[in-house]
Specification:
Layout lengths: L1 E7 L3 H16 L4 H21 L11 E10 L6 E11 L20 H8 L2 E6 L4 E10 L29 E2 L4
Antiparallel strand pairs: 1-2, 2-3, 3-5, 4-5, 4-6
Helix pairs in contact: 1-2, 2-3
Length: about 180
């Protein structure tokens, strides 16, 4: 299952994206722990885009950001049932997203560190006019009830490579 939504460059979009993603994951029988992880990741990525980046440029509608997810379930895989890829695209900022090292008293700066902790991998891609930040969550074979829903990898809305592709901009790789 793949979905791409254009949302207003506004704080209320975080709730909307989280609700749509969680609804799709519930419909596929994904376990609650992974749904919670996915909800937190989409919230962090979208909040960062809204706080630090510009809306998408034309030809996108004025004042929007794009949120995408691709859910791939592969029940015949012995080690995993699949993965969830979440991405947020915006009009870019003066700097690339990076993990901050906030002080203990800082009010922000922990979002991408949380994403790195929850995701199997994450990264950024930049083209002429947009920046996309993405994260992949693995779904272990013993996690949740996938009820035989099978999927195959499809091209995601913002990344040209599949899950196995290594990107020069990928970050947060964990074993």
């Amino acid at each position: 299952m793949s979905r791409a939504v254009l949302l207003p460059h506004a704080p209320s979009s975080v709730t909307s994206a989280r609700q749509h993603l969680c609804s799709d994951l519930h419909a596929l029988g994904i376990g609650e722990a992974k749904i919670d992880d996915a909800a937190l990741i989409v919230s962090e990525l979208l909040s960062n885009a809204l706080r630090h980046a510009a809306p998408l440029p034309p030809p996108f509608p004025t004042g929007t950001v794009r949120v995408c997810w691709n859910i791939v379930l592969v029940p015949e895989e012995p080690a995993a049932n699949g993965w969830i890829e979440i991405s947020v695209s915006d009009g870019g900022a003066e700097t690339l997203p990076r993990i901050a090292r906030p002080s203990l008293s800082a009010l922000g700066g922990r979002g991408l560190g949380i994403v790195q902790h929850l995701a199997a991998k994450w990264g950024t891609e930049v083209d002429d006019s947009t920046t996309t930040v993405w994260a992949v969550i693995d779904i272990p074979a013993d996690e949740g009830n996938v009820g035989g829903h099978a999927g195959t990898p499809v091209e995601t809305c913002s990344r040209g490579s599949d899950r196995s592709g290594e990107l020069a901009t990928s970050q947060g790789m964990r074993a």
